[in-house]
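Lab notebook, bench 4. We co-purified these components, and the gel suggests they stay together. Before we commit to crystallization screens, I want a quick structural picture of the whole thing.
Request: model the full complex, all chains together.
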Amino acid sequence: MQTDKFITPIAHAFSAGLGSWGVINGMQVVTQFVDKDVEEIRKELLGIADASFLGKFGVKGRHAAQWLQDQGVDIPTQSNSWVADADGNLVLRLGGSEFLIEDAPDGNLCEKLLKADAKRAGVYLVPHVEASLVLSGSAVQELLVEVCSIDLTRAALGTQEVIMTQFAGVSVVLIHQDLEGEARYRVWCDSSYGPYLWEFMAGIASEHSGGPIGVGNYFSL
Amino acid sequence: MKLLTCPVNGTRPLSEFVFGGEYRVAPPADCTDAEWAAYVHNRSGAPGIKNEWWYHAPSGTWFIAERNTLTDKVMRTYLKGQEGSK
Amino acid sequence: MPLRLLKYALSKDYPGTRFFKAHETPKKSYDVVIIGGGGHGLAAAYYLAKEHGITNVAVLEKGYIGGGNTGRNTTIVRSNYLTPEGVKFYDASVKIYEGLSEELDLNLFYSTRGHFTLAHTESAMRTMRWRAEVNKHVGVESYVVGPDEISKACPQLDMSCSGQAPILGALYHAPGSVARHDGVAWGYARGADQLGVEIFQNTEVLGIDVKAGKVVGVNTNKGYIATSKVLSAVAGFTPRICEMVDLDTPIVIHPLQACVTEPMKPWLDTILVSGSLHVYVSQSSRGELVMGSSLDPYEVHSTRSTLDFVEGLTSHMLDMFPFLSNIKVVRQWAGMADMTPDFAPIMGKTPIEGFYLDAGWGTWGFKATPISGKTMAETIARDHAPDLIHSFRLSRFEDYELTGEKGAASVGH
Ligand SMILES: Cc1cc2nc3c(=O)[nH]c(=O)nc-3n(C[C@H](O)[C@H](O)[C@H](O)COP(=O)(O)OP(=O)(O)OC[C@H]3O[C@@H](n4cnc5c(N)ncnc54)[C@H](O)[C@@H]3O)c2cc1C
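Here is the predicted assembly.
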């Protein structure tokens, strides 16, 4: 779907010569920041990874829900909630009538939807090029309370809740996901704010002996 | 920290919101020039309970808040067209 | 110790003369009633008496004089506006200010500092060049300067603003000044009082009596006063007064906040404004940094302060002056700014005969105190507004002839 001309929207936050770069899903990303063992320790404490290469698809409008169902996509019934299908693709319902879909690392749902006929009244495609991040670790709440003024603990969030709020002044979409026995937060923000938010959160992660890690720590690629 | 309740996303710090001015109804299209100019420029500036547009920036939600502009107390918030539902 | 002070210390009664007589009960009628004992109302009273011989005038103030925005502003006086009409008008005010301490026989601590409006982007530079050209055309001393000159005038300034917003240049305005705001109110009050004007504090106007489209009197908490001419000079209270006469205006009220640091030795002798960083700062004669920002983002009729304001302001101050990180903010406050859509005032006659408006002073009216007093006095005396304030008339909105000053007034006040 993507060509290798793409570079992660976080790129401006990475100094030259940092880590090792690679191409995932047609996007240039940093695949490893430091030694494997150090990354593993970071992940335990407070890891932050760049998952912006995952395919995304957006649709909104009066009939968007129906249209998605017609394409065979399971959608969350409540506003501001999300579901994952059997392949791990995420379907987020943003408010009542807007949807953001993100592919699993090996998924191609978004490509399929892009090709589908969406020229129907009440169905409008919304291009998505967000920066997409993963956060986890024992100190992740310390980071969240520094960047956000609402309670984002596991207990405060419903299991399938989508939260739209601000991190350090930047609008973000957030979910909490238990995956592979691990509690992770997924965060999306406008790509132009990606480097700022990355620097800000990576800085806090470092204060807690965590830091940036390759996304391979979260997804088998 | 001052809080405001978005009818869709719940109670959030005021910093997540943008003020959109008073909710106003335009005069009919065949109004006089003077009526139109008054609609374009004039505002009901005196303090009181007003219906105002507010915008929840992270989610892009426009809604209406009923607020006392003297005390800054918000009586209720609702989506346009769903005034009676709360 | 000055002799005068010694005299106070040794005397049982108060030996000094009061600034103005403490009138309690208003007369049954006056030629002119002025609502609002801020700088504007008092200056209008002074010039009515001094230049037009109209001395049967009452100034009604619901609190104490200068307790409104006059005593809350950050005292910046300048004339580097964007429209030729604005530049001419504010320049006339600056010229009066320069001789005002002498005229009112009161030290107003009028201090000409020079004023830099910093530009951090190319588009801001373009506005600075535009303002400089308009200013020069009208004969006001403003020109665009580069980073070197700014650095020389203020070596403490981090020219990169912590790497966030490097300074590309500035509009320099030589006459930019600060003054003692209470002094201005008190000086005009004394001047007006000496010429026969009566000033009433704790006197609130509760209603305006209009018959057949003409003003005939005002109701106050001290009774009815008959008059055929009323001037409303109440800044943040303007919509409430206009409601009394059923007059619609574009004015909306937003709080404007300011704060000061603890005193320091003098180090900043110019006035600095940054539109991009939303701050402006000068150092007062007491050594405090006087700092302010743009308007609060929504309508409130209150002078409450917020923590958001100081947090936002100080973070930007630290971008400009990282060395201030240990300095404390010791006071903050707010005033109610009467905002207009074009950032220009509303002055002159209204559709109601005998009801004159001096309003829409928003965040920028302290500098205009002398000239607005003078021109409003003339408007009332002749029932005709002078050309200098033609562009500020209320009817400009109906005529779609707005006087766009936003580019020169939204952060630097
Ligand atoms: C924080 C802040 C910073 C500012 N900085 C600057 C600056 O740097 N430079 C600049 O030029 N301008 C500045 N301004 C704007 C400036 O302060 C005002 O525009 C100006 O002082 C208005 O003066 P005034 O006399 O019209 O109003 P005010 O001084 O507000 O006087 C109005 C008076 O009317 C009285 N009143 C109201 N209703 C009634 C009633 N019903 N009956 C009787 N009395 C009544 C009030 O009590 C008040 O005393 C600033 C304002 C604020 C709030």
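The two ends of chain B are 25 Å apart (CA to CA). Worth comparing against the SEC data before the next meeting. The first helix of chain B runs from residue 33 to 41.
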